[in-house]
């Protein structure tokens, strides 16, 4: 998106505001499908947790995507957005049996990552098709909080527990129709991913009625100019060749599935905030904005980097600024960043704000959450109104102490 488009959104809808570029989502989706064009059956399931706005879900449905969900509420959002149950996979962790059964009754594909739950579910619902999430014990991911395939992870059934897993399936006579893994986010080395894929192929060979193999996702996107990213084209060539060979050995064509979230929406997102104050201290120049980690928590939570630019003065002389928020504790978006000279009232743009940004926002400090806008076909479409104070107190029940 061009700066003048972003500035027009900030002027029309106020700040702070999230803006999503539909064209970028579409190009990322096409890039992934092109990379795996040699696979006869490919399924892309968008990871709803990255950005769950209903208009975004509808846009992805229009592209041909399915959905990857982790809660019954995400399943309900998908159904409300028009996805049929068979286009949704549900991969929870640590939820109750009641929630899993409720989702299964909706006709959604269940993905189980716990031996205890698998045995309970299989005993009660042996005819319901189930996918199994395997932990390949492969460490991948750019941060310990998003590396989910290592040996100490709470996610997945260990490959070392496959004999136990097979015994449960034999005893319950349950129907296993899919095998799944997810190693983590921000995968840099595709050879690590391919190594984990070999473990998944080996595990899949134990099951004779599979319909799909789900390789999760975790593709890294660039966060700054010149940043490295997952080479999905090379991965597509190598994994497609290996997958097709496995299908021949297996005896029939299976579906190759992925669950991208960040890859599809991260670069499509922009977060716009107004500078409230420029404050010079003895060693630092702070640019304080009309937002905080209540709206964009990733820099404080993950140490993630979001490129920040002053779109009100893009060609100004660069100076060093520490960009901070208005939350009443340490609330830093970026330290000592080179940004075009900032004046109070300027609009700063945070890039890569499409994934895990609005979806992790909160009302901390009793602040309202911002609006969301979709830039589609050259026009700005409001897809979520800015909250009001009434939204904050809507569900509170006041006790009468008299």
TrEMBL record:
Annotated metabolic or biological route of this protein: Amino-acid biosynthesis; L-lysine biosynthesis via DAP pathway; L-lysine from DL-2,6-diaminopimelate: step 1/1
Keyword DNA-binding attached: no
Record-level GO BP terms: lysine biosynthetic process via diaminopimelate
Boundaries of every Orn/DAP/Arg decarboxylase 2 N-terminal domain copy: 24-266
Modified residues annotated as N6-(pyridoxal phosphate)lysine in this record: 49
Keywords (A to Z) from UniProt: Amino-acid biosynthesis, Decarboxylase, Lyase, Lysine biosynthesis, Pyridoxal phosphate
InterPro entries: Ala_racemase/Decarboxylase_C, DAP_deCOOHase_LysA, De-COase2_C, De-COase2_N, De-COase2_pyr-phos_BS, Orn/DAP/Arg_de-COase, PLP-binding_barrel
Residues annotated for pyridoxal 5'-phosphate binding in this entry: 218, 356
Domain of life: Bacteria
Binding site for substrate: 298, 302, 329, 356
Residues that span the membrane, as ranges: none
One matching Pfam family: Orn_DAP_Arg_deC
Domain Orn/DAP/Arg decarboxylase 2 C-terminal stretches: 18-354
Catalytic activity: meso-2,6-diaminopimelate + H(+) = L-lysine + CO2
Function as written in the Swiss-Prot or TrEMBL entry: Specifically catalyzes the decarboxylation of meso-diaminopimelate (meso-DAP) to L-lysine.
Quaternary structure note: Homodimer.
Name under which the protein is recorded: Diaminopimelate decarboxylase
Origin species: Flavobacterium supellecticarium
Gene from which this protein is expressed: lysA
């Amino acid at each position: 998106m061009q700066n003048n488009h972003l500035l027009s959104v900030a002027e029309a809808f106020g700040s702070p505001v999230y803006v999503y570029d539909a064209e970028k989502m579409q190009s990322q989706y096409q890039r992934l499908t092109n990379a795996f064009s040699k696979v006869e059956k490919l399924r892309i399931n968008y990871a709803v947790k990255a950005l769950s706005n209903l208009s975004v879900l509808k846009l992805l449905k229009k592209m041909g995507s399915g959905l990857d969900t982790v809660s019954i509420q995400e399943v309900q959002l998908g159904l409300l957005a028009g996805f049929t149950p068979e286009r949704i996979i549900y991969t929870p962790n640590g939820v109750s049996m009641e929630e899993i059964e409720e989702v299964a009754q909706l006709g959604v594909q269940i993905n189980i990552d716990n031996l205890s739950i698998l045995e309970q579910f299989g005993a009660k619902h042996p005819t319901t098709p189930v996918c199994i999430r395997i932990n390949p014990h492969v460490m991948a991911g750019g941060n310990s909080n998003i590396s989910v395939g290592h040996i100490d992870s709470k996610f997945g059934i260990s490959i070392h527990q496959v004999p136990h897993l097979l015994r449960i399936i034999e005893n319950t006579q349950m129907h296993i129709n899919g095998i799944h893994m997810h190693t983590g986010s921000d995968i840099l080395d595709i050879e690590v991913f391919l190594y984990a894929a070999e473990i998944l192929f080996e595990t899949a060979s134990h099951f004779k009625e599979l319909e799909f193999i789900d390789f999760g996702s975790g593709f890294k996107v660039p966060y700054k100019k010149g940043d490295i990213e997952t080479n999905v084209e090379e991965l597509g060539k190598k994994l497609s060749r290996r997958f097709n060979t496995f299908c021949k050995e297996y005896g029939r064509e299976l579906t190759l599935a992925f669950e991208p979230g960040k890859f599809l929406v991260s670069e499509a997102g922009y977060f716009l905030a107004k500078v409230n104050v420029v404050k010079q201290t003895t060693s630092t120049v702070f640019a304080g904005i009309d937002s905080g980690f209540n709206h964009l928590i990733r820099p404080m939570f993950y140490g993630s980097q979001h490129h920040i630019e002053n779109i009100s003065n893009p060609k100004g002389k660069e100076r060093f600024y520490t960009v901070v928020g208005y939350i009443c504790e340490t609330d830093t978006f970026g330290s000592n960043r080179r940004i075009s000279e900032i004046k109070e009232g300027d609009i700063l743009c945070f890039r890569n704000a499409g994934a895990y940004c609005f979806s992790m926002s909160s009302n901390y400090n009793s602040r309202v959450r911002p609006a969301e806008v979709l830039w589609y076909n050259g026009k700005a479409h409001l897809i979520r109104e800015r909250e009001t104070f009434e939204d904050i107190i809507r569900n509170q029940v006041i006790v009468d102490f008299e």
